[in-house]
């Protein structure tokens, strides 16, 4: 099938690399008008020139004034993909207040502010909106060692998504979560390379995946496409686990 997002207006946070970038390219290929955003403007600028990529936008989701300005510039969208996030490590005893706050801000408050900015635009025009939030299997779904602040923040994002879905279910506004396992992205590679023994860290990550491999950004983007397009119009408030069997 082609053109699954034909003519639909999409904004994606964290579109400079990994899942966000793969989703921007796939959505554009499927006919969407995509506004990729990222704190690093250079990364999203690289997407410009691809058919369907309208404009690269620098956006720091930790600054509410930036979020509001972007919503004002872009206007109503059909799809909001809150993909930006951060993966801190550590147990509860190793988690500082600063790490906790940063995880909550990047992984929850950013999506909160983006949704708060774009939902009223859809309500005003009485048009539908699909919100796709990037949560994780490491959340309220599955306890994972050394992921305290990260898992709590991603569990909170699931709760936020359900709240939005419940509040606007009768107004054509949907909200769903993607909950991946371990995905091979530049961010993941960076965490592995920063470990004491990168080779062993990579082996350990692969070993915990029951399929014996990591997921790819393109595989997660394919699920995001389904949740973004009208094929999933009867779906809201759900968590979609895509983890290679990690939760089994």
UniProtKB/TrEMBL annotation:
| Pfam families attached to this UniProt entry | adh_short_C2
Q: Which family does it belong to?
A: Belongs to the short-chain dehydrogenases/reductases (SDR) family.
GO terms for molecular function, please?
3-hydroxybutyrate dehydrogenase activity; 4-oxoproline reductase activity
What Gene Ontology cellular-component terms does the record carry? cytoplasm
Full protein name: Dehydrogenase/reductase SDR family member 6
Q: Does the keyword Cell inner membrane apply?
A: no
Q: What class of enzyme is it?
A: oxidoreductase
Q: Which reactions does this protein catalyse?
A: (R)-3-hydroxybutanoate + NAD(+) = acetoacetate + NADH + H(+)
UniProt keyword terms in alphabetical order: NAD, Oxidoreductase
One GO biological-process annotation of the entry reads: siderophore biosynthetic process
This protein's pathway reads: Amino-acid metabolism; Siderophore biosynthesis
Q: Give the enzyme's EC designation.
A: 1.1.1.104, 1.1.1.30
